[in-house]
Amino acid sequence: MTGTPLTLYNSLTRTLEPFAPIDPHVVRIYTCGPTVYNYQHIGNMRAFLFADTLGRVIRWKGWPTKHVINITDVGHLTSDADAGDDKMEKAAAAQAKSIWDIAAHYTAAFKDDVARLNIEPPAEWTVATDHINEMIAFAQKIERDCYLIDGGLYFDTSKVPHYGALARATTDQGESRIDPVSGKRNAADFAIWRRSPPGEQRQMEWDSPWGKGAPGWHLECSVMSLKHLGHPFDIHTGGIDHREIHHPNEIAQNQAFCSCEDTGAQIWMHNNFLVDRGGKMSKSTGEFLRLQTLVDAGFHPLAYRLMCLQAHYRSELEFTWDNLAAALTRLKRLVIALDALRGRDDGTLKGDAEPYLARLEEAVADDLNTPRALTVLDELIADKKLSPTVRIGAIGDFDAVLGLRLAELTRAEMRLRPGSATIDEATIDVRIAERKQARVDKDFAASDAIRDSLAAAGVEVMDGDALGWDWKLGAS
Q1: pTM to 2 decimals?
Q2: Closest CA to 112 of 382, 298, 292
Q3: Which of 31, 132, 305, 396 has an alpha carbon within 20 to 30 A of 199's alpha carbon?
């Protein structure tokens, strides 16, 4: 689809801009990936759902993509600024495990969540510790804009033009204020290479011209994006929290490296926060919501994907169990409607779905307006002037963009047993069969009693429905 020009919001300019790829043969996208010291909470996963939607829209518009997501297994401190311990080293010490085992476990868990959310895997996963030599070489090239203190090599942010423009920070009290470190020239200066403290051996450390140590977190993304995508590439994505410190520091390094004002990417894009008023969006508390938490409560992962799609990626989105339940209900209705269309599909081509596809394109070309696209999908499904064959074909286009797996998702697959359930599926099936027999025998008192007992166990009996029953899901 190429009719409506794609317009995207550039965080750097704070404006909507028409998108045109640098190379029309491939759109190059870099997404800041996870630091694999723990499981990713569902707020983290919103960033990857957003990046996946972006990639899907670009490919649907006819451009191939090369998407890179990094895995940070070293260098990210407990503060996103420039203070504290390395998150990976701290996690390894707390669990008394090898840092490499920690990284492998949480990387696998993250990729499993990616698959469950139907996020298409990137062209390349890049791992920070696979690029240490390139990081040292990059740091050597920008060393003229750095200085050495006891803690290591630090970048002098006064050496690049317009530092912090992405965050719009103009003072030390601005959005990208960084915690003080003894010896820094400017409050915003940041570590390029952190020396290992005297007498301390880290699990991850390497020799460098500035002493044994490890790279700074910000350096890693500049190096990996340069190696795998080149500079400049098309789009850099991440969560809005990256807009304040991490990405301005990437930009500063990129500008020092090229001795120019090129930021490294043509467009910088950021999704807004997922907010939980219960405070479960921070790993620092030790208790946080991850995708498996939702699954354990009986919610299919794609219900969370749909919940995110129902809000614009630049809008703050509040997580509540009621919102998630509403998204699951909407997803079930989409699957039921598509099943009904398949049941009536006789191959007849009647009506024209092109107006709906044009409206889909208008929606997603308007800075990925997925809420509007979902509304158009609902209207398409309900339009009886179009034959089932025509509607089913058009729904495939919508799903290529939305990624809800509507073509193969079944209601039975969405019926996930909640961890709180006190009855198993086999027992439910027996009780359903007993109830059917009671109804045949016109023993309605027994039939009602079985329904009530199942309801008390969190099971909804659905008479006249092929599925038969489903779990009742409420707030967790």
Answers
A1: 0.95
A2: 292
A3: 132
Task: Please report how the helices 87-95 and 99-116 are oriented relative to each other, as an axis angle in degrees rounded to 10.
Answer: 110
| Cα–Cα distance, 189 to 186 (Å, whole number) | 5
Residue 269's nearest CA partner among 456, 67, 108 is 67
The amino acid at 176 = S
For 122, the token pair is: 């990137």
The residue written with tokens 């957003």 in the block is 50
SS (HEC) of the chain: CCCCCCEEEECCCCEEEECCCCECCEEEEEECCCECCCCCEHHHHHHHHHHHHHHHHHHHCCCCEEEEEEEECCCCECCCCCCCCEHHHHHHHHHCCCHHHHHHHHHHHHHHHHHHCCCCCCCEEEEHHHHHHHHHHHHHHCHHHEEEECCEEEECHHHCCCCCCCCCCCCCCCCCCCCCCCCCCCCCCEEEEEECCCCCCCCCCECCCCCCEEECHHHHHHHHHHHHHCCCEEEEEEEHHHHCCHHHHHHHHHHHHHCCCCCCEEEEEEECCEECCCCCCCHHHCCCCEHHHHHHCCCCHHHHHHHHHCCCCCCCEECCHHHHHHHHHHHHHHHHHHHHHHHHCCCCCCCCCHHHHHHHHHHHHECCCHHHHHHHHHHHHHCCCCCHHHHHHHHHHHHHHHCCCCCCCCHHHHCCCCCCCCCCHHHHHHHHHHHHHHHHCCCHHHHHHHHHHHHHCCEEECCCCCCCEEECCCCC
The alpha carbon of residue 418 and the mean position of all alpha carbons in its chain are separated, in whole angstroms, by: 24
Phi/psi for 281 (5° steps) reads: -105, 20
Instruction: Please name the residue that has the structure tokens 């080149």.
Output: 230
**Cα distance between residue 380 and residue 353, in whole Å:** 8
Q: Taking each helix axis as running N to C, give the angle between helix 301-309 and helix 370-382, from 0 to 180 degrees, rounded to the nearest 10.
A: 110
pLDDT averaged per 10 residues, the chain (length 476)? 88 98 98 97 98 98 98 86 84 94 97 98 98 98 97 96 81 47 91 92 94 96 98 98 96 97 97 88 78 98 98 98 97 98 97 98 98 98 98 98 97 96 96 97 97 97 95 76
Rg (CA), the chain: 26
